[in-house]
What does this fold into?
Amino acid sequence: MSKERARRREEREREAAVRAAARAEQVARRERREARRRALTSRLPSGAGRPTGILAERRRKQTGVTIALLVAVNVLVWVFLGDWAARAGALVVSLLVAPVLHLMLFKP
It folds into this structure.
């Protein structure tokens, strides 16, 4: 009975050693990947980031509203007009009119 217990304990220890080696290899692989990433990103210029603050938030909302209106108009044109030329024309006109519409909706 004690020989059987010793054999099972030996098997458990061997399996635990295999799992520990696999974990160590995984950790080493992750550390190498992070080191490569740090080396690469240290050479890149840092981005300015997204502007924060009340004015930036207001500008994002206004731009979102303008884009939503233009998308809605284009969807309506797409649904109700079957002519491809009309659809393409509406898209081009909406792109050209976008700055004017934005100024009309949100005067500074």
Observations:
- The CA atoms of residues 73 and 94 lie 8 Å apart.
- The chain has two domains: 1-47, 54-105.
